[in-house]
Amino acid sequence: MSWKDHIVRKSLTDIEPYKPGKPISEVQRELGLQSAIRLCSNENPWPLPEKVVEAVRLASSETCRYPDPAAYRLKRAIAMRWGRSPAEVIVGGGTEGILYSLFQSIIDEGDEVAYATPTYPLYRLAAAASGARRIEVPTDGSEGETGLDRLIEACGPRTKALVICNPNNPTGSIMTRTDLTTLANSLNGRETLLILDEAYADYVEDPKYASGIDLFDQLGNIVMLRTFSKIYGLAALRVGYAIAPKPVVETYLKVRKVFEVNSIAQNAALAALSETNYIQEVRERTLAERERLNFALRDMGIRVHPTQTNFVVLHLQEAKTVYENLLSEGIIVRLGDDLGYPGHLRVTVGLPEENDLFLQSLGKVLKRLAGR
């Protein structure tokens, strides 16, 4: 065995790196395209409000200074937004950055992290990075099939955390208020932290949905994750937050990266929090475009899963072939194979003109494949 083999952690040998959606520049370079549209990463494509743009401009003049490591002003604004204490708020580098540090702060040797699949692949990677044993609980990914009983059964005495993406990425489905309450109550006496990733909560229409914050006061085992990367339109700045019990926050602060959230991100997020009219407008436009896409896709004879997010999910037998053909048309969507959801394409709801181009290109691709 060489020193290189010896020095690499054995527990990571079966872990594949995360496969992000392709950047526009990469697709243009690889395929020689003049233009392309990106509908693969569930970003908010609508222009930012002027107040947020101005906050970015002002903060950029202080790039020679370290950011506030405590994110004092942003943390207090988030606490006020949810009626919590600042001592119950974590600010970090997106939900991804928070999860990595959170797992490192709570996982001991032999502990487990559980999660339903298919779901956001970063849960698996963050758990592996902490040295946790990973407990994957398969569900069929359909609306209303959350695998509640299997999730409860999977959590044993060494399960430190159960992560639920609600609404779920990549399926777009939700865990209802009834199921979430049952799950939280079942874990409350087991010393298992229920971590709820609510990145897409702002897009939910279903009245059966409930945020983890609704259970936070009743139970002591809830962590609610939110992000500024989706409806707030700050994906490039990498800032998210969590509402968590004080002991969890205190332990988290021992291992988190000190200057993880830069000044530009902090100031932009602080400005974005107050832009309630913008958020409502983006929500309404996104939901209208989502509905338009669903109708158009069904008219094309495509099976579309109902979602409560800013993306649509297409069930296609030749998903990979369609994905590759769409790339050649300059349309970047997300291949379900990369998300543990083979046979599907996940398509972000873009601007109206982007959605039109996607539908036109998809129709062209399907016609071409049908004529082979």
Question: Care to give the gist of this entry?
Answer:
The chain is of the alpha/beta class. The protein contains 14 helices and 13 strands.
Task: Give a written overview of the molecule.
- The chain is an alpha/beta fold and 372 residues long.
- It has 2 domains: 3-47 and 277-370, Aspartate Aminotransferase, domain 1 (Alpha-Beta Complex); 50-275, Aspartate Aminotransferase, domain 2, CATH 3.40.640.
- Helix content is 40%, strand content 15%.
- The chain has 14 helices and 13 strands.
- It has helices spanning 3-7, 24-31, 50-60, 72-82, 94-106, 122-130, 148-154, 177-187, 213-216, 246-252, 263-273, 276-299, 319-328, 352-370; strands spanning 37-38, 89-92, 112-117, 133-138, 159-165, 193-197, 222-227, 240-243, 303-305, 311-315, 331-332, 334-335, 344-348.
- The strands form 3 sheets. A 7-stranded mixed β-sheet has the order 2-8-7-6-5-3-4, with helices on both faces. Strands 9-10-13-12 form a 4-stranded antiparallel β-sheet, covered by helices on one side. A two-stranded parallel ribbon has the order 1-11.
- Strand 9 (303-305) and strand 10 form a beta hairpin.
- The longest helix is centred in the C-terminal third of the chain and has 24 residues, at 276-299.
- It is globular and about 60 Å long.
- The N and C termini lie far apart (51 Å).
- The model has no long low-confidence stretch (mean pLDDT 93).
Layout of strands and helices, then pairs:
Layout: H1 3-7, H2 24-31, E1 37-38, H3 50-60, H4 72-82, E2 89-92, H5 94-106, E3 112-117, H6 122-130, E4 133-138, H7 148-154, E5 159-165, H8 177-187, E6 193-197, H9 213-216, E7 222-227, E8 240-243, H10 246-252, H11 263-273, H12 276-299, E9 303-305, E10 311-315, H13 319-328, E11 331-332, E12 334-335, E13 344-348, H14 352-370
Parallel strand pairs: 1-11, 3-4, 3-5, 5-6, 6-7
Antiparallel strand pairs: 2-8, 7-8, 9-10, 10-13, 12-13
Helix pairs in contact: 3-11, 4-11, 5-6
